[in-house]
From TrEMBL:
Family: Belongs to the bacterial sugar transferase family.
Protein name: Sugar transferase
Transmembrane regions listed in the UniProt entry: 25-47
InterPro entries noted in UniProt: Bact_transf (IPR003362)
Phylogenetic placement of the source organism: Bacteria, Bacillati, Bacillota, Bacilli, Bacillales
All residue ranges annotated as the Bacterial sugar transferase domain in the record: 23-216
Keywords, comma-separated and alphabetical: Membrane, Transferase, Transmembrane, Transmembrane helix
Amino acid sequence: MGKITNDKDYHILIEKRARAVSKRIVDVLVAVIGIIVTAPIMVLIAICIKLEDKGPVLFVQTRTGQNGELFSIYKFRSMRFCPRNKNQKKYGQGWDKGVPDSFIFKDGSVANPNVTKVGVIIRRTSLDELPQFFNVLLGDMSIVGPRPEIPEITAYYSKEQRTRLLVKPGITGWAQVNGRSLITNGEKMRMDHHYVLHQSLYLDICILMLTIKVVLTSKGAV
């Protein structure tokens, strides 16, 4: 961290810390309320997942968080249980200058045969993301921020692409209310970069309101 050389730097530092504290308070409050309100829904989803194929209720995966720190993200499992994923994708071929702008992590035009019946419903309604309220309480995630990517992809980020890692990843974000899973990596990067530069409580509230609209219409869901 650079030294504080004048009053302007001091006020900027205080403002950043105040913004971080207020964002954390809002995150905790929203996460607690979210867990309380959706608890019956989460219990019902867990029961349905267990009844369908007896596998684990939660899908736990390593993701890249703020400043490149790794953490475990929690989601309701939406795909058939497989102890070993033999068809795991390989990334990085030809990515010498960063993740290509044309790259799309999920292809919404292709139906995945491994998605369960319950999985189809919770994916389209984004209910599979509800366990991430606990990620917010743990401090790994925020309610609003860039969606966390897997390390196999972030390892190939260019210097510019790494700017999206300067803030905590979120359950929802600016990119998610502007296309969700259907946008390219280049579009996502531009939107996440915009959020990092202009993040504020007002922008977070706007994104939350737009998230409700997107979820209700299932726009961009896969």
